[in-house]
Specification:
Helices cover about 55% and strands about 15% of the residues. By secondary structure, it is of the alpha/beta class. Strands 2-3-1-4-5 form a five-stranded parallel β-sheet, with helices on both faces.
Length: about 210
């Protein structure tokens, strides 16, 4: 199907385990968009800290993210509890956010058709994105979803511990000084507690089609 516009930038925001990654990936596949997870970038930064223990973190990140091949991140296990905890901490550091923001903006500039998901994409990274989505669901649903994702990798993980970790992470993201988790006024809310994958894609597609056929 041919559309009137060749460029299409979609931003997907939301708290941890709200389904934004799943929604963003599915919609990227449907519309042939380049996909980027900002959360994965922060996890990679945390992984680098653990592995190399650099003395000057900012200089180190500058070098690493200048030559980063995003596709290479898929080969790494970036979903450990330690990485999650460090990610929440470095996400509060403005200089780190600026480095990762630069990478994300470069990605969006190179890819006119893209979908980026995270916690501040619509408000800070792509405020001029064509379509903005904000994902929500209850803490109970989010914790069960994340638990199922991680239980095979971490057999000793307990559901209650994951629920506690998600509550803490979301609270930290909402209250942090630099680029807090906020819903953009133009964002379309996607409640993944009420919508299954098929219904979610239908709702997202309806809004995207309006832009493409405008």
């Amino acid at each position: 199907m041919r559309y009137r516009i060749k460029s299409l930038r979609i931003s997907c925001d939301g708290g941890a385990a709200t389904g934004k990654s799943t929604g963003a990936k599915l919609i990227s596949k449907k519309y042939n968009l380049k996909f980027l997870s900002s959360g994965l970038l922060y996890r990679y930064a945390s992984y680098l800290l653990i592995k190399y223990k650099p003395l000057n973190k900012i200089s180190f990140f500058n070098k690493k993210f200048k030559k980063l091949n995003y596709n290479s991140l898929q080969k790494l296990n970036l979903h450990t509890q330690e990485i999650s905890e460090i990610s929440a901490k470095i996400a509060k550091v403005n200089k780190v956010r600026e480095i990762l923001k630069k990478y994300q903006l470069s990605f969006a500039k190179k890819n006119k058709r893209c979908c980026i998901e995270g916690r501040d994409i619509s408000t800070k990274i792509l405020p001029d994105s064509d379509v903005k989505f904000f994902f929500i669901c209850s803490l109970k649903i989010a914790s069960k979803r994340r638990y199922k994702e991680l239980e095979k990798l971490h057999p000793n993980l307990k559901l209650q511990d994951e629920k506690k970790a998600l509550r803490s992470r979301n609270k930290s993201d909402i209250k942090r000084k630099n680029s807090p988790l906020l819903k953009h006024r133009d964002s379309v809310v996607i409640d993944t507690g009420k919508l299954n994958k098929q219904a979610m894609i239908v709702k997202m597609s309806n809004y995207i089609e309006r832009i493409l056929n405008y």
